[in-house]
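Quarterly update, task 2.4: magnesium ion-bound model.
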Amino acid sequence: MKLPRRPWRPITAAHCCTVKGTPIALNNLTRCRPTRSEFSKKVSEASSFRRLSFSDLSSSSSVRFNTDDFVNSFGAGLFAFTVGELSAITQGFCSDYLLGEGGFGTVHKGYVDDKLRPGLKAQAVAVKILDVEGLQGHREWLAEVIFLGQLRHPHLVKLIGYCCEDEERLLVYEFMPRGSLENHLFKRMSITLSWGTRLKIAIGAAKGLAFLHGAEKPVIYRDFKASNILLDSDFTAKLSDFGLAKMGPEGEETHVTTRVMGTHGYAAPEYVMTGHLTTKSDVYSYGVVLLELLTGRRSMDRSKPKPEQKLVDFAKP
Ligand SMILES: Nc1ncnc2c1ncn2[C@@H]1O[C@H](COP(=O)(O)OP(=O)(O)OP(=O)(O)O)[C@@H](O)[C@H]1O
Ligand SMILES: [Mg+2]
């Protein structure tokens, strides 16, 4: 079954795709997708469970991508689904079930019953269809499976399963009934959040981030922002979207050098200038979300007068 194709929708960006380590223009940071040519890079085979990282995505590997190996590598926690199954549980990915759309695809609500897979309980789920026309969509899918397949914490959204069928890449998450923090802060879809709730969200998100940074092998989240903080029915905050996550520096290294990616308004200026990524880059983005929670203003709002467009500048005393 083929999924409907949508044209690629860049978020902003003229200079976002840069060669590793090359500084980029500060005001053009965004998420971006490189060319299609690298799409065929495969994940290397992993025989037993261990923490996988992008170093496992060897570009020289010619090993065929095998879903069963993949499942074994990530432990027993994830379910593999077919496109047909995910289409059935989302009523054919119909627009009535659309939860939202990001830079890399649409997210649809679905319901699984307890007959779909042994061990999978009946529940509402969110199904993300990754747009994998180029390498970046595929990498984001793989990063989600690698990181969220292995990291479990009350303040990280739970990845239930995935689909890897021909060139289709989908992800199945626990459904978060209150959607994203971004929707609550800026889209006026519900009543204004109380200060107590804002504090609860800030603390929950901080715990999720602290868990990632404090892991035996620290993980840099790289995309901390209001749209990636999802809210449970009681406003428990959970981090979602690990498509840009990176393993932290190892050994004596102080940072990871990487192509600059993230979201304008949230990314730490020193990372944008140098491509040097550290856990502190996430802490900067956390500070930006705190400002959003405090002011109710977006990190970047081009509809405002110039001096007020960037929240961090506007908030400076
Ligand atoms: N597990 C989930 N439960 C409920 N709603 C979800 C879930 N995952 C995503 N959503 C909704 O779908 C929207 C789109 O999510 P997605 O992660 O694709 O994009 P985004 O975070 O808004 O943007 P970007 O692509 O820049 O990260 C979210 O803002 C949220 O409202
Ligand atoms: Mg997101």
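Highlight for this quarter: DSSP finds nine helices and twelve strands in the chain.
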